[in-house]
Structures are given as structure tokens and as C-alpha cells.
Amino acid sequence: MAPTEQAVAGQPATLADGDEERRRAACVAVANDQGERVSVSGQVPEDEMALHKLQVAEGEVRVAGREGPLSPMEERALARRWRACEDEKALGRLVQAHLGLVIRIAMEFRHSGPAMEDLIQEGNLGLTIAARRFDPNRATRLATYATYWIRACMLEHVVRSHGPVRIGTTRSQRKIFFGLGRARRKLEREGEVADCEKLAGELGVLQEDVEAMTPRLNGRDVSLDAPRGFDDRRAMGATLAEEGPTPEEMVAGCEEDDHRREQLFEGLKVLDPRERAIIRARHMRQRPATLAALGKKFGISRERVRQLELRAKDKLRSYCGLGTDSSPEASA
Fold first, then answer.
1. Residues 286 and 206 in one domain
2. How many distinct helices (H) and strands (E) make up the chain?
């Protein structure tokens, strides 16, 4: 019987020092079927876990692509079968043969924020789109064409994963999003101050775009419903200043409107009945009356109604202290 299974002198069997160390090392991390590590007696470092998951993904790629890479003739033949007959097996063979390309491109974005598995999934989506759209009659390989689609899907995922507030919606914003840190480090290595003007020149974008994007990249997203602090339970949105008028300005505006309305009704008293009727019909109704209808009502021409309207307006301006119209038609 092995030493680990027997008892000596009535005491439980003990493991040797080397066996104990191996047992503890084996219990630190156990890889499950999905390639994830289950921590038993300790925490696995993030870089080690990411490397392990990458190795698992590469192993799956090798298993899926055991048939080997495609020659140019095989690639074109499979692409033609897909385009002509929509052969799913041909499309799957094209995708499987280029899964390694997705992992190589995903390694370039491993420090961008999202998990490596998510980047690979987005890259697989771009690879599938490229395989569906690939034209075998053009003098190019699928790997060259798919690289653009894979990068585009990964870049889009990185931008979407930055936070709940979407950024990078324009070309200049994307250049700032992915190149701001690199441009700042380059300027600092050269001994220059990395201000917005020099950063904009280095990135080839407008200075206003850099000034608008820098606080959004350096800051963090905060929910407007979140409390301000442990002692202050008020929501963040309740303390933000509104862009509309303040309560004082609203009260002042209402008082000014009331004053103007009173002046208008007092000014109507200085007009004769016909001028008062024309002003009410032309400017104080939901549907203003036409000059022709008022001319027919008062038995005068349309031009005369217009002259009476101008004269009534001039009287109202004079009464309210706004100046008078010096045109000859107003004094007719």
C-alpha cells in the first residue's frame, strides 16, 4: 500500500514534503472544459489567466483547422462555391482556415480594455462578414481582405465597451480615442509640453475636438441617479445647473409680459374704432383676417386698410415710448 494510504502507529498517513508541494500547486488552479481556471487555494493573476485562455483559444483553432491552410486555388474554389451555391461547408472551411488571423489581431488590442474572448468573438464576426463578401475574382487573398473587417469589428467593440456613454462616433474622435495616449507619450519623450494644440497637430485633427474629447477620456462615467456621497444621499442630477432660465429670470419675464400686455390694452384706447378693429383682427386673433376681408367689411380698398394698420401701429409705438415710423404711409 502506498504511504499516502496507510496509517503508521495508529496515526493518519502524511505526505512527503515534495508530494505536499505538488498537491498545493495542483490545487491553485484547475482548468475546466471551457478553458477557465477555477481557483481553489489562491487567486490566479489576471495576466496568467489571460495567457491561459489565449492558449485554450489557440488550441481550439488548431483543432478546428487541422486540415491546414488553404492554397490560393483552394481559397478561390471555396469562395466560388459559396457565392454560386451558398455552400455552408465551403464558407465554414474559409472561416476555420483563418481563425488564427483573428487571434493574432486580437493580441494587438489585449491592453485596450475588453476581455480577450470578447475581442476574438468580435473578430470572428468580422471574419465571417469578410468571407461572405470576398470576391475570388479579385487579385487578393482572403486574409488581406478580412484583416480590415476584423480590425473594424474589434475597434467598434473597444469603443462601445469604453462606457455607457457612446464616444468615437466620428473619424476624428476615433483617431483621438486610439492615438491620444501614444501622441502624448511621444511629445513627452521629445521634451515638449503635450497641450491640446500640439496633440491636435500630432493626430491631424482639430484642436476643438481634442479639447472636447480629453475630459471624456480622462474622466469616468457617473450615473445621474447615484448619490453624491455617503453622507449626502441626493442624486447627482439634482445638483446640476440647468441650461434654461433661472426662477428669477422666469418671474422677471412674466412680469415684463404682464406689463407689456397692460400697455397694449391701454394703447388701444387711443385708437379710433376702425383702427382698433383692424389691429384686433390682424394681430390679436388666432387666424388673422386678410386685408381684402377687412376692406370689404369697412367698404374701403385693401391698400387703405394697410395704411390704417400702419398708422395704428405708429400710434401704439408712440404711446409705449418705442418711437414712431417715419414712413409717409404711416402718416397718411
1. no
2. 14, 2
